[in-house]
Amino acid sequence: MANLQEMFDVRGKSVIVTGGASGIGRAYAEVMAEHGARVCIFDLNSAQLDAVVAELGRNGAQVWGQAVDVADRLRMAEAFDAVAQRHGRIDVVFANAGIDAGPGFLSTTGARIPDGAIDVLDDHHWDRVIEVNLTSVYTTVKHAARHMKATGGGRIIVTSSIAGQINEAIVGTPYMPAKAGVDHFVRQMAMELGVFGILVNCISPGPFMTNIAGGRLKIPADRKAFEEQSLIGRIGDPEDIKGLALYLASPCSSYVTGSQMVIDGGSMHRIK
Ligand SMILES: NC(=O)c1ccc[n+]([C@@H]2O[C@H](COP(=O)([O-])OP(=O)(O)OC[C@H]3O[C@@H](n4cnc5c(N)ncnc54)[C@H](O)[C@@H]3O)[C@@H](O)[C@H]2O)c1
Fold first, then answer.
1. Phi, psi of 106 (to 5 degrees)
2. Atom of ligand 1 nearest to the CA of 205
3. Domain 8-269: which topology?
């Protein structure tokens, strides 16, 4: 790689971002589009999707969207095929859509939260969190692999969480095994797909200011608790994640697979 442009070159790449109408996924879509990729966003929230597609496409960037629930397997297959049809191939897939899991069993002040207790946890809630945060990653990787094998390779980048590696009492219980499962699945997929030229990695964010949990991190008490975990005194802004996304999607990371890349302002070192 001769120069900076070649190292980070994603021009013309065909990219899918699930959950790209907000927060971290929107930042992935934006950085890819800003650097000349052709981006398709999948999102459940079609109003927000239309707004983000219009915003990101303003300066001639190639961005479009499809209203997709990542938990709908049939719809996912169709949506992947539609991207392959329109772009001719699929090069980079961000498996990013995810939801919060409600309150943890402790509040930020250390008080027990009755609704977060395991003995009253709603079974449908458990199922939906696992379906969106874990099973949909399986569905996304499955269709990405189906298309990438046919064209000789690609990049799969999954948004996990530091919750996959450490336990947090203030985060809803189903979120923990979902993200730990994602981490293990990513390593398994890196093992299986490397021979086909498909690199599979995880981005594991700590707290980021997004709309997850109805924007919980915008509530001062919650925000303060998460800020105090960070070694640099602040929570992440979606802008902070763009560099890592571009790195994992570009030639720069051609020897990286099966990795969990933590981006958390050092929070993991402080969480008890
Ligand atoms: N924000 C954080 O602090 C944080 C920390 C660690 C990991 N994460 C992970 O980052 C990812 C993105 O979350 P975010 O914080 O940007 O949240 P967000 O709520 O701002 O954005 C998530 C997007 O995903 C979409 N979405 C949700 N369910 C969907 C479904 N079933 N099908 C299609 N789209 C769906 C939403 O409509 C939304 O546009 C998630 O996987 C989340 O678990 C977030």
1. -125, 150
2. 6
3. Rossmann fold (3.40.50)
